[in-house]
Structures are given as C-alpha cells and as structure tokens.
Amino acid sequence: MKIITFPHDQIPPELLDDIDSLYAEAYGNVSDEQRGDSPTEPPLSEAFQHFVMVDEKGTVVGNLAAYVRAVKHKDQEFQLGMIGDVATRTTHKKQGVAKSLVKAAHMYFAEQSIEFSVLFAYDPPVYKSSGYKMIENEIRFVDGRGEWRTLRIKGSMFCELGQAKWPAGEIDLCGPPV
Ligand SMILES: CC(C)(COP(=O)(O)OP(=O)(O)OC[C@H]1O[C@@H](n2cnc3c(N)ncnc32)[C@H](O)[C@@H]1OP(=O)(O)O)[C@@H](O)C(=O)NCCC(=O)NCCS
C-alpha cells in the first residue's frame, strides 16, 4: 500500500469514482448537512490537498483532505492545518490507514512551518495516538447556513506539530470547520 497526494482540483481521473465510493461507504449514514459536499466536489472557495492510500491494485482504501487556512487568535493571524474527510474502506479499518494518512498530512503541514493541526472528530479516540487532544477553546466559525457562531465544538481536537503550545482563548476559524 502507498499514499499518494495531489491538490483537490487535480484528482487523477481513474481515482474519482473510487474516492466517491469510499466517501459514500464511510459517510453513508451521515446527513448531508453534517458531511458537506463530496470530497471530489469541494467548495470552489477553498483549496485542499488530497491524501489517499491505495492498495496493490491501485484501489483507494483511505482518504484525507488537508486544508491550510489563515485563522485568528486575539487578532493575531496564523496558518492552521485542518484535516477533514478522513475515511477508511470497511475492509481496511483498524489497520493503521487513517493514522498513516494523518501522519502524512502532519508532514505536509510541518513542511509549511505550520504549528498546529485541527480536526473535528466523530470518534475522538481514533486520533489520540496521533497526538490529538480535545479543544476546550470557544471557536468562531461559519455554520452550514452561513451564520457566524461562537461555541465549543463537540469533537474538535488539536495537535501541536512543533514546539509551540496551543493557545487559550477564542480561535476564529475565519470560515467553516472542515
Ligand atoms: C474513523 C476511521 C477513519 C478510522 O480509520 P482506521 O483506518 O480504521 O483507523 P486506524 O486503523 O488508523 O486507527 C487509528 C487508531 O484509532 C483506533 N480506532 C480505529 N477505529 C476506532 C473506533 N471506531 N473507535 C475507537 N478507536 C478506533 C485504532 O485502534 C488506532 O489506535 P492506536 O493508534 O492506539 O492503535 C474509519 O473508521 C472510518 O472511515 N469511519 C467512518 C467515517 C468517519 O467517521 N470518519 C472520521 C471523521 S472525523
């Protein structure tokens, strides 16, 4: 198995259906509002980097989307890594696929000197061994209806990628959670 990566608008055509079917498999019972658009049809406003795990036959068995966004803390802007669309094919669960994809995304963020990664987990325990802790901060963000809200987001987690410590106080995502 290997990980391949490409920008969201340069998905290899032969992987398009595979990524969509994986997404349907992983998020099949989740409402559209919770899961957002298909990862192959991202909002045009925000770019992200795809990381996919493929097996020996070239079939996609895992997917992750890595976003880099300028966010704010106490009016100071900083670059935040954000991870979304984590999904593992049912046949390949609990074999370290998601963990390997998260590790690859962390390297991608670290190459850009990004200090923190954030994700919004349905299953927080999955990310503990990758270094994630629960976010206690209030978060300002745009919800699915386009309205700004400030609250603690259930399942939100951070990971310190370098020496910097995760700050206390409100974090402004300057956009939606991913
Ligand atoms: C959640 C999901 C991505 C995990 O993928 P995975 O490839 O099976 O995860 P990994 O094998 O890399 O496991 C990583 C760690 O989480 C643990 N883990 C995996 N699934 C778990 C679960 N359902 N509950 C608790 N822990 C779990 C593993 O034991 C492992 O722990 P370790 O590192 O301490 O050994 C996968 O189950 C999935 O696609 N679920 C449906 C979609 C979804 O919920 N996506 C996440 C959105 S945040």
Structure report:
With 178 residues, the chain is an alpha+beta fold. It has one domain: Gcn5-related N-acetyltransferase (GNAT) (Aminopeptidase, 3-Layer(aba) Sandwich), CATH 3.40.630. It is 20% helix and 34% strand. It has helices at 16-27, 32-35, 97-111, 125-128; strands at residues 2-7, 49-54, 60-73, 76-88, 116-120, 133-134, 139-142, 148-151, 156-160, 171-172. A hairpin with a 5-residue loop joins strand 2 (49-54) and strand 3. The site of coenzyme A has 18 residues, from helix 1, strand 4, helix 3 and helix 4.
Keywords:
178 residues, alpha+beta, Aminopeptidase, ten-stranded mixed sheet, 10 strands, binds coenzyme A
Summarize this structure briefly.
By secondary structure, the chain is of the alpha+beta class. The protein contains 4 helices and 10 strands, in the order βααβββαβαβββββ.
Counting H and I runs of at least 4 residues, what is the number of helices? 4
Sequence of secondary-structure elements: EHHEEEHEHEEEEE
Strand content is 25-35%
CATH topology: Aminopeptidase
CATH architecture identity: 3-Layer(aba) Sandwich
What ligands can be seen in this structure? coenzyme A
Q: How many extended strands?
A: 10
The CATH superfamily appears as Gcn5-related N-acetyltransferase (GNAT)
